[in-house]
Amino acid sequence: MKLAKILLLVFLLFVACCFSQQFSHLAQYGIEYSFYQLEKPRPIRIHVLKIDFSKNLVEPVVVVAKDPDGAGPAEAALTNPFELAKDKNVVAFVNTNPWDSFPDEKGRKNTNWYEGQFVNITGLAATGGKIISPAGDGCVSVWTDKTGRFYISQFPDEKIMSEGVAGWYQIVKSGKIIPKQSETLNPLTGIGIDKTGYVVWLVVADGRQKGFSEGMSHWELADFMLRLGCWDVALMDGGGSSIMGIIDEKGCMSVVNSPSDRILWIKKIRPLPNILTVRKKG
Asked: What pLDDT score does 19 carry?
């Protein structure tokens, strides 16, 4: 029995090492990809991008889907994230903001999330200094200045802000876990920063897939990211929205995690209103 556990551990380490080596080409951009396969307290697969923006090799750029109604109430039309990340300089992306649909004439909201659906982005969404959705809604803001330094706060400093997104709330602040947590297990996305704001961790934990990856609680994600070295962490939208895309050695973008949405047991990528991309400079 003990030998079987040792062999299983060796196998899992081998798989994680091979998976990480698959993206070793990201090192040229100051990016490190890591894959974690946890078996306790349950099966969990976690994908981590550690990015050092101080090296000035890449830059964070928020991409917001097209406004479908101009001066109307919608801020974006849900769009395939591959379309949002189509710029040739994009090397990676993750999902960010939560959002909501609009009620029909009977007051019912469609939460089946389809491409082209009109939605209202929850919290901050800004790119190139232009604010598409203002901060608020009780959300935490994750934003950058023009040097690529990240900040996590409820409201951004609009005088220096360049890019901005929002998550549900902050789960780690100044190196300590914030106790407002949910014990529900879900796929989760987190954005963490070190004390300087230039080293950033993008984390996606898969969930809702029994025996494969069953998800994490908010506290578990906070604890995991604290151990990675994060000083502040924001919990972004999760569930079927949690997604991480990375280019391969040939420059082709692919999804590295296992999104939880399904249509007749077939994996489905959920359309999104906006994403955070990491782009090559120059």
From this structure: 55
> Position of tokens 């089946």?
112
Comparing 136-140, 178-182, 250-254, which segment has the lowest mean pLDDT? Answer: 178-182
Tens digits of residue pLDDT in 99-140 = 999 999 999 999 999 999 999 999 999 999 999 999 998 999
Residue whose entry in the numeric block shows the structure tokens 């969990």: 44
Taking the C-alpha atoms of residue 13 and residue 39, their distance in angstroms, rounded to an integer, is 12
CA distance 155 to 153: 5
User: Counting beta carbons within 10 angstroms of the beta carbon of residue 14, is it exposed (0 to 12), middle (13 to 18) or buried (19 or more)?
Assistant: exposed
Domain residue spans in the chain?
2-65+78-99+123-280
Whose CA is closest to 94, among 146, 31, 176? 31
88: Cβ contacts below 8 Å, ≥ 6 apart? 251
- State the Cα–Cα distance between residues 208 and 239, nearest whole angstrom: 8
Residue 212 CA to residue 128 CA, distance in Å, equals 39
Across 63-86, average pLDDT: 96
**What is the amino acid identity at position 20?**
S
Residue 102 identity:
F
Q: Name the token pair of 143.
A: 């934003």
Structure letter (DSSP) for residue 261? -
How far, in Å, CA of 223 to CA of 106, rounded? 43
Sign of CA dihedral 197, 188, 83, 247: positive
Cis, bond preceding 68 (omega within 30 deg of 0): no
Q: How far apart are CA 234 and CA 188, in angstroms?
A: 11
Q: Could you tell me the two tokens for 141?
A: 């803001």
